[in-house]
Every structure is written in structure tokens, then in C-alpha cells.
From TrEMBL:
Annotated protein name in UniProt: Ketoreductase domain-containing protein
GO molecular function ontology, one term from the record: oxidoreductase activity, acting on the CH-OH group of donors, NAD or NADP as acceptor
SUPFAM superfamilies: NAD(P)-binding Rossmann-fold domains (SSF51735)
The keyword Transcription appears for this protein: no
Lineage top rank: taxon: Eukaryota
Family, per entry: Belongs to the short-chain dehydrogenases/reductases (SDR) family.
Keyword Oxidoreductase: yes
Single Gene Ontology BP annotation: fatty acid biosynthetic process
Pfam family, one: adh_short_C2
InterPro entries named among the record's database cross-references: KR_dom, NAD(P)-bd_dom_sf, Sc_DH/Rdtase_CS, SDR_fam
Length: 276
């Protein structure tokens, strides 16, 4: 039964989670949302110092959170992040495969290295981290059939479905994440593990700030978003927490797009001066 604190049911009480890329941005928002629902969380990130500071911030709010260094391109690091959760709390219930990067260049000028770097983190990293988590969950179920079920959430993007010509590696990797999400949902269903994805639109992160550098750029972003504003990382975190919870107990193999209506749009909309 979920615990109750201040009249609010905590849907993830007793659960443990690993969030890759959890040091900042969407990853940190996901970790915070899971914590606020009662989960204990490992913030796994290649930037250990920032992950440690973020874990301390969550601890200051009264949550159980620790940091682990993790380069998701390396199987050993993914295994170690999972092991950190098991070492701290005895099990793993939830993985959020969020770590991702983007490198932009005109298609004819994009280097092989840039393409490999993006696909290595965004797609191979999802494969490795999800496989590590799933193996732990399967082992838990074998050792204790009463353990329950696992939840894996991948981080896709609206760019899995729509293209921007200067981010070929990103587009390709996120399309691959969607395919991998569906494949894992089928493969892991017999083991009691649900796998779903979240596809953000334009969210207020450092990545977006790097492209929305002036009013004109911000206007272009808002013109493709029917709701007329940029999303907040917490709005992704809340959807991730939902997918991790029993409220989504009959959902698997789905990608939920959190995009302010962007994918429904086949035209741009006027943006009033001073909006956003």
C-alpha cells in the first residue's frame, strides 16, 4: 500500500530507481519526481560532481538519493549504476534511460565521430542501461516471485518522428529508441517488466538554451508549439513518474509525447510580440 504523507499518496513508496543523465535538466527533474512519489533514486551521470550536488539537493528535501558515475556507452558503467541501487537498497524497480546528447552540423558536413558520439550515447546507451536493469529485475523475480514488476522508461523525442536536417545523428538515434522501446516491451513482458518511452518537445534545458539564443530563435520555437510556451523539465518528470507507477500498469510499448501539441501541428502559428 502506498504511504501517505500530508494527505498525499506516494505511488512509488518502497521503490528504487536509477536515472541515467540524472545530474541536471530533464534527468534531474525525473529523479525529483520519482523521489516526490516516494522512490529512492540513483542519479547516474558521466558528470559525477554535478550528480553528487544534485543528490545532496534531493537529500536536503528529505529524499533518499545517491550519485554514481556512469558513461552509458560502457556496459561496465551501466552494470555499476544498477549495482549501486542494489547495494544501497537491495533491489531495482525502475530505470529511466534518459542520458542523451545532441551535436548539430549540416548533413554534408557532419563528421563520422559526431554521428558515432550521438548514437553511442542516445541509442547504444539506452540499450546497455536497459539491458543491465532488466537483467537485475529478471534475477530479482527469479529469486523472489513476490517482488512485483519492473518499469523501464526510455527518453525519446518528437524528433524520433520529425526531422531537423542539422541533427541527423539525433534524429536517427531517437527513432532507434522508439524501435528499441517496442522491442524491449515485447521481450520483457513475460518477466513482468513494462517498457514505455517519453518524447519531449521543446523543454527549457541547457540544450534548448543553446539554440534559443535570441528573440528571433525563441519566436521560431514558439511558432511551432500550439500551446505557445516552452515546456518545463518537471512536466516531463511527472509523466515519467506516472509511467513508473501502478497507474500505468497496463501500458507497455508506448511512447507518450509531451510536446505542447507540436506533433499535431501542420502549420506554424503567430506568436504575439513579447510572448514566452
Amino acid at each position: 500500500m502506498a504511504s501517505v504523507l500530508g494527505g498525499t499518496a506516494h505511488r512509488l513508496a518502497g521503490k528504487t530507481a536509477v536515472v541515467t543523465g540524472g545530474a541536471k535538466g530533464i534527468g534531474y527533474a525525473c529523479a525529483r519526481s520519482l523521489c516526490r512519489e516516494g522512490a529512492k533514486v540513483v542519479l547516474a551521470d558521466i558528470d559525477l560532481s554535478t550528480a553528487q550536488a544534485s543528490a545532496q539537493a534531493l537529500a536536503a528535501e528529505g529524499h533518499a538519493a545517491v550519485a554514481a558515475r556512469c558513461d552509458v556507452r560502457l556496459k561496465a558503467d551501466c552494470d555499476a549504476a544498477v549495482a549501486a541501487a542494489v547495494s544501497e537498497w537491495g533491489k531495482l524497480d525502475i530505470l529511466v534511460a534518459n542520458a542523451g546528447i545532441v551535436k548539430a552540423a549540416p548533413f554534408l558536413e557532419m563528421s563520422e565521430q559526431d554521428f558515432d558520439d550521438v548514437v553511442g550515447v542516445n541509442l547504444k546507451g539506452v540499450f546497455l542501461s536497459c539491458q543491465s536493469a532488466a537483467r537485475q529485475m529478471v534475477a530479482q523475480k527469479a529469486a523472489d516471485p513476490s517482488w512485483g514488476e519492473g518499469a523501464i522508461i526510455t527518453m525519446s523525442s518528437v524528433n524520433a518522428l520529425m526531422a531537423i536536417p542539422t541533427i541527423a545523428g539525433y534524429n536517427a538515434s531517437k527513432g532507434g529508441v522508439n524501435g528499441l522501446t517496442r522491442c524491449m516491451a515485447l521481450a520483457l513482458a513475460p518477466h513482468g517488466i513494462r517498457v514505455n518511452g517519453v518524447g519531449p518537445g521543446s523543454i527549457a534545458t541547457d540544450v534548448l538554451a543553446s539554440v534559443a539564443t535570441d528573440a528571433a530563435a525563441r519566436g521560431r520555437i514558439l511558432s511551432r508549439t500550439p500551446m505557445g510556451r516552452i515546456g518545463e523539465p518537471d512536466e516531463i518528470g511527472s509523466v515519467v513518474a506516472f509511467l513508473a507507477s501502478e497507474a500505468a500498469s497496463y501500458m507497455s510499448g508506448q511512447v507518450l509525447y509531451v510536446d505542447g501539441g507540436r506533433l499535431a501541428l501542420n502549420y506554424t502559428v503567430p506568436v504575439p510580440e513579447g510572448s514566452g
